[in-house]
Amino acid sequence: xxxxxxxxxxxxxxxxxxxxxxxxxxxxxxxxxAPPMEQQLKFDSKLADWPENATYFLEKPxxxxxxxxxxxxxxxxxxxxxxxxARLIKMxxxxxxxxxNGKKDKYFMLRFTGGPTRRQIRExxxxxxxxxxxxxxxxxxxxxxxxxxxxxNNLICYQKDFLAEKPxxxxxxxxxxxxxxxxxxxxxxxxxxxxxxxxxxxYGLGVSPDRALGxxxxxxxxxxxxxxxxxxxxGEGHPDMGGGMPPGGDMGGGMPMGGGPGRFERPERGNxxxxxxxxWLKINMTSSTGERTPAKK
Length: 297
What we know:
Layout: H1 8-22, E1 25-34, E2 55-58, E3 63-69, E4 73-80, H2 83-92, E5 94-99, E6 108-113, H3 118-125, H4 138-150, E7 154-159, E8 163-168, E9 177-183, E10 186-194, E11 197-199, E12 202-205, E13 212-219, H5 224-231, E14 277-285
């Protein structure tokens, strides 16, 4: 076989393009303004509750971010339309890091794990069947819905030098709160974090409402060990797969990929984080109302 030689510039261009395709979604060095609210933000997963000057659309990774605050809390919204991201967050979580010094120190963390039912995913994806081209029996559907009920939403909190990773209630009774819902074709994840200092059984940032915060958002990291745990007994199959696993008992080395809404396909071996999304922001809180400050790069 004869190999065709390409000019050096074409080879360099190809390598750069290949690297870009293999790099997980990553967004950094953005500055957003978090406008003040006169009263607490409603926590019911409705986009209309968020002020227009508190939401921003990020072209990469095609998600809507919301940030605002009142005198006691900062509120964070992540909303998107991609069912594959919602599935991954349900399995491995959406992590929020906060740095009260406005940088990227992993000082305070919340990790929400949970999300949509299969019915909600089908409604947003616009598909009647979970796996296009494959009919699911009523028995299997009932089994999958039962698993949905067992996979409860949960919230983990961590604070540097104060609190090891600990499950806390989602309702804010120990400070932070989190919620999930769907609205207008979006998967919505909302967080509320107290600004006052942590105390026993109550966790907060310990900052005034006129500071700049560093915020990191990470989702889509696939954990093969977590996947094995969720499978349960051998041969049972992943709860989002409708049963049945490839020979050898794993997912072929990777995470759920493309293939249309609500569908998993075998990824290339070794590609375990190709859906990982990572956003780092600087959130500027202000103590008085004013015009919207645009996102800065």
